[in-house]
Amino acid sequence: MVKFAICNELFRGWGFEDVCRYVAGLGYHAVEVAPFTLTDDVRSIAKSKREELKRIVSRYGLKVAGLHWLLVKPEGLHINHPDPEVRTETVDYLKALAEFCGDLGGEVMVFGSPRQRNVLPGVSHGDAWRWTVDAFKEASEHASEHGVVICIEPLRGELTNFITTVEEALRLIEDVNHPNFRLILDVYFMSGAGRPIREQILMGSRYLSHVHANDDNRGGPGFGSVDYREVAGALREIGYEGYVSVEVLREEENPGEVARVSLENLKRFFGLHA
Questions:
Q1: Mean pLDDT of successive 10-residue segments in the chain (274 residues)?
Q2: CA 134, 162, 34, 265 torsion-angle sign
């Protein structure tokens, strides 16, 4: 059975424990953490603080699903930058994130980070691809030591010029060729890809490890016009049992209400009792 999580950056201005208390009360199973909401650099978070964060999550009967928005902070990171020092620093930070994720009990790291993966002017697609493969090989091996899977997220073409289809994401996964490098699919992305969502989910099923639930208007699941019966049906068809994690891509005046309605909608879409 699928598990429901929610991304914490929806709750702008809320303390981490306040978020955990609230979403646990709604019935979510897990929280997905955007590291920039806690710090500009996870390497600054001491072991004692990590243990405290994990205790807070456990106190409310939750788990940490994982991390996302990985490279918002610190500034200057880029997975396929032409400067090898920048690439090295980026891989080093992905390793640090994997350690942080593992320390919190998280399972996945969602690699979206559109600006930090764009193929930059003057860089060939072939070079960017090769550098990206090398970076994720190294980062995934380190992640495996901490029980963490890195998931590549195909994104809409208006957000990035690199990995904008499920096919490209699958080719990258197969070129990296590491069991801890897999796929995340996002409903907002799939709704704009010009093909049925079911087809995309079935195409990615072999490597699918995480799902972001939102809608074609960047709101929560059920706030737009996506047919979530198709989403839920396809995930059932492939036997998906991972997290379906609410990721709202726009600012909301009442995040608590959005979180509540999103979970009610997901339970209805998946045929569960609210």
A1: 96 97 98 98 98 98 98 97 98 98 98 98 98 98 98 97 98 98 98 97 98 98 97 98 97 97 97 66
A2: negative
